[in-house]
From TrEMBL, chain A:
<dbReference type="GO" id="GO:0070490">
    <property type="term" value="P:protein pupylation"/>
</dbReference>
<feature type="region of interest" description="Disordered">
    <location>
        <begin position="1"/>
        <end position="20"/>
    </location>
</feature>
<dbReference type="Pfam" id="PF05639">
    <property type="entry name" value="Pup"/>
</dbReference>
<comment type="similarity">
    <text>Belongs to the prokaryotic ubiquitin-like protein family.</text>
</comment>
<comment type="pathway">
    <text>Protein degradation; proteasomal Pup-dependent pathway.</text>
</comment>
<dbReference type="GO" id="GO:0019941">
    <property type="term" value="P:modification-dependent protein catabolic process"/>
</dbReference>
<dbReference type="GO" id="GO:0010498">
    <property type="term" value="P:proteasomal protein catabolic process"/>
</dbReference>
<dbReference type="GO" id="GO:0070628">
    <property type="term" value="F:proteasome binding"/>
</dbReference>
<protein>
    <recommendedName>
        <fullName>Prokaryotic ubiquitin-like protein Pup</fullName>
    </recommendedName>
</protein>
UniProtKB/TrEMBL annotation, chain B:
<dbReference type="GO" id="GO:0010498">
    <property type="term" value="P:proteasomal protein catabolic process"/>
</dbReference>
<comment type="similarity">
    <text>Belongs to the Pup ligase/Pup deamidase family. Pup-conjugating enzyme subfamily.</text>
</comment>
<dbReference type="GO" id="GO:0019941">
    <property type="term" value="P:modification-dependent protein catabolic process"/>
</dbReference>
<comment type="pathway">
    <text>Protein degradation; proteasomal Pup-dependent pathway.</text>
</comment>
<keyword id="KW-0460">Magnesium</keyword>
<comment type="pathway">
    <text>Protein modification; protein pupylation.</text>
</comment>
<feature type="active site" description="Proton acceptor">
    <location>
        <position position="57"/>
    </location>
</feature>
<dbReference type="GO" id="GO:0005524">
    <property type="term" value="F:ATP binding"/>
</dbReference>
<dbReference type="InterPro" id="IPR004347">
    <property type="entry name" value="Pup_ligase/deamidase"/>
</dbReference>
Amino acid sequence: MKREQIQQQHQQQNATDQDEISIAQQNSEVNQELLGETDDLLAEIDGLLEENAEDFVKGFVQKGGQ
Amino acid sequence: MKKRIFGIETEFGITYVPSSLGPIGPEEAARILFKPVVESWRSTNVFLPNGSRLYLDVGSHPEYATAESATLRDLIAQDKAGELLFADLLNQAQDSIEAEGKEGTFYLFKNNVDSAGNSFGSHENYMLERRVEFSKLVRSLIPFLMTRQIMVGAGKTHPHGPEAWRPLTGQDKKHGTPSFSFSQRADYIWEDASTATTRSRPLINTRDEPHADPNQYRRMHVINGDSNMSETTTLLKIGATDIILRMLEDHFPLENFEIKDTANALRTVSHDLTGTTRFELADGSYKNALELQRNYLRAAQKYIADAGAHHADVPYILDLWNRALIAVETQDISGIDTEIDWAIKKKLLDSYIARGAKDYADSRIQQLDLAYHSIDPDRGVFNVLQKAGRARRVIDPGAVEKATLQPPETRAKIRGSFIQAAHRAGEPTTVDWVHLRLNNKPQLNAVCKDPFATEDSTVKQLIDLLGAQKTQEWMPPFI
C-alpha cells in the first residue's frame, strides 16, 4: 500500500483511536469499582438463571457437529 | 501491503428447558427456530442481505457464517450480528411455543461442547495468496495455533477433572479433582492437518476451497479455536493469527517448534493454567506454552516494528497478547479479566466459589459455565457482564445492529444487494459465495471471483432487471 493510502486509512481510523482511548480509561475505572458492585451483579445474574441448575446443564445434549 | 479476507463460522448449541411437562428435543427445537427462516426464504440454508450465510447444519446445529470481511472490526461486527439474528429467531420461537400454551425457555449457546461431550465448532477462515508454500506454512503455524488457547480460550469447567485423553472408555470418566481449562475445544482435536472435519478433527482443514480465483488465492480453514463471546478476545485471536500469517508470508524468521504429538500437547496446554507444563517437540526437546507464545510475541513485536502496523488495532493486539501472557506467568488475571473470555469467566466462577459454591463441580458453577455462552442479549451471562462494564467492547452496539442488515465492504456487498433486491421482487435465486443467479434468468449467471470487489457489472444488470431502486432501506431478514 502506498504511503498516501496508509495516511488516508489512519485518518479514517482517528475516530476509532479515540474510542480506544476512552475505553481504556473506562476500563481502569471499572476495575476500581469492582469490589463494590460484585454482590449486586451476582444477585442480578442469580435472578436470571434457571432454578434447576442440574437439569439445565444435563438437558443440553446435541448430536455431534460439523 | 497484503490484504486479507477473514470469516468466522459458528455452530450454536440449542436446548429447550421445559418448566412444566413436555420436553422438546434439539431437532424439533431447531425446526421451530428455523420456521421464520423457511417462511421468509423458503429454505433452512440461506444467504442473507448482510452477506452472511445462516443455516441448519449436520446434527441440527444452527450455524452462522459471517460475510467475507476485509477488516477485523467488520469481522467482529458480523460475528456479533450473527448472535443478534439468532436472538431474533429465538424470540420468535419462544413466542410461537407460548402461543401453543407450552411453558419453557429456548436457549442458544455459542460454546463448543454439550453435557454429553459432543463437540461443535468455531471455524476461522483466512485467505492466503496462492504463491505461499502452503504445507510449509501450515507446519509452521500449528505450534502457534496449539498454544494460543492460553490467550484466547473460552474457558471450561471439568467436574471430574480433565477428560480422558483418548476416546472415552466410560470407566475413568468419574474420577479426578474438579478443574478449569483454557479451552473448550482442545479435548476434541485429534491431528495436525487433514481434509476432514467430522471424523478425525484436525487443527487445520486443508481442503482447497478458496471461494475465489483459485489461481490467486487459497483459504486456510482453522478449526481448533473456541467460540468467543468477548469482542476483544476475538480481536486478539484473529489479529494475532493474522500477524503470524503475515510473518510466514514474508519469510520472517521464526523458530521451528514442530510438535511431536499435537493432540496430546493441546490437552496438556489446555488443562495447565500455569502454562509451564512441557511437551515434546519433534526434535526431542521440551517446551511449554508460555515459552512458545513469548517467542511468537517477541518475533511479532519485532516484525511490526520493522514492517509497521497494518491496521489501527495492531498496538492493542500486541499489548493484550502481552498482558494475557503476563496473567498466566504471574497467575494474576486482573490485567485481562474484562478482555479475555477464559479470565472473564474464571473471575465470575471464582467469585461464586468465594461466596460458598463448593468447587468447579458445583451445579451452580456448571450452570454459569454454560449460561455464560447464552446469546440472549438480556439474560445471557456474558451479555449481562458486558452491560455491567465487566467485558470490554470494541464495536459500538449500533454498528452490530447495522451489521445484521448491511454487508461489509467486500464482495458481500454485491451479494447482499442482489439478495435484497431479488427478495423484494419475490424472485427466486441460486446463490453461493461466488455465484449469483436469478432462477428465471439462467442465462445471466454472475461469477464474483474477487472477494475484495464491491461492484460487479453483471450483478448490476441483474438488479436493474429486478427494477429495484438504489436507495432502498435495508430490511430485517425474518418477518
